[in-house]
Design goal:
five-stranded parallel sheet; 12 strands; alpha/beta; 8 helices; Rossmann fold
Length: 229
């Protein structure tokens, strides 16, 4: 697995160095900045998986930095580090979309546990989002096998969901019939091809409610999900 890239923005150089050394020891890849402006510049020019931000900093405080980061990336996890234990700071941090908050002094072990917990949630959300497909006025959640057309939700069978997922992955391009059969039915026999035609008919029936999408048959080749939205 690739190392997790961590942006550490902490104006106390001693604590910043201790944090960086500890994270590196635990096989993370930390980048240390000592003020908010430098942190923002690093964030703009590098890819990070999580941000650890001190609140009280010169040039740009942690709240202002988090606001700028959120404008650039809505999803990246943020944990605030602060010497204050004021409830107002915690509330302000969570309003800005913080994922967690830890008050100094803290143990490195506790911080690592919090980082790992936040990353697990983040990666789980990202993995789930990879299986949500938007097309026309519809969406498919292939994990839940759920087709949503405007406000209506249709529970799909396993094969209906697998077939629609393949069509979505190849939206506005030809989905090769034989390849689809081998991926879903594991065999492109005549019997399975007829079975797939039945599922295509079912999907077309569901999608009639969304005039901006259609499934075309490309004779001799396969099918194409057309999205005219």
């Amino acid at each position: 697995m690739d190392r997790i890239n961590v942006l550490v923005v902490e104006d106390d150089p001693n604590l910043g160095q201790i944090l960086s050394d500890y994270l590196r020891l635990k096989k993370y890849n930390p980048t240390l900045c000592t003020d908010g402006e430098a942190g923002l510049e690093k964030f703009k020019n590098h890819d990070f998986d999580i941000c650890l931000l001190d609140i009280m900093m010169p040039r740009m405080d942690g709240f202002a930095l988090a606001r700028e980061i959120r404008n650039l990336n809505k999803e990246i996890p943020i944990i605030f580090l602060t010497a204050k234990s004021m409830k107002e700071d915690a509330i302000e941090g969570f309003k800005l979309g913080a994922d967690d908050y830890i008050t100094k002094p803290f143990s490195m072990e506790e911080l690592l546990l919090r980082i790992n917990a936040v990353l697990r949630r983040s990666f789980k959300d990202r993995d789930h989002q990879k299986n949500i497909f938007l097309f026309g006025n519809s969406s498919l959640d292939s994990d839940k096998q759920l087709l949503s057309i405007r406000n209506e939700k249709i529970k799909l069978t396993n094969k209906e969901s697998q077939l629609l997922k393949l069509l979505c992955q190849n939206k506005n391009e030809i989905l090769d019939r034989s390849a689809a059969l081998k991926m879903i039915w594991h065999d492109d026999s005549y019997f399975n091809a007829r079975s797939m035609d039945v599922y295509i008919t079912k999907l077309r029936k569901y999608l009639k409610k969304d005039a901006s999408v259609s499934i075309q048959t490309i004779h001799g080749e396969g099918f194409k999900l057309i999205d005219q939205s």
